[in-house]
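User: For my dataset I need records formatted as: sequence, then structure tokens, nothing else. Please produce one.
Assistant:
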Amino acid sequence: MRPTDVPDQGLLCDLLWSDPDKEADGWQENDRGISYMFGGNIVKLFLKKHDLDLICRGHQVVEDGYEFFSNRQLVTLFSAPNYCGEFDNCGALMCVDQNLLCSFKVLKPADKKMKQNLFQTGRPNTPPRIK
């Protein structure tokens, strides 16, 4: 359960629902119908203003589990492979070491047979025992 309801507008809404867009210049209305889309120029201004090197965000399905934007100044992470059983996306986790070097662990989507069984029975097949 979320600690608060997300309003239809304002800071909390925009932190959750705004999305990067390669075609955007500045801020534009979002295709989701809520919040905004922003271009690489907004990322660059935000990083400079707050003396940061990278923005890490989530809440948007990306095919490979992670996706860079704006010359690798922003990364979108999505940790749920096969999101809602409707997508064949990977999931990913970002690891940051003591030198602030980022690497990614990719969670591959389930194969079609396993996925089909999961959504028919509500649970995956039990793997065979190894003798």
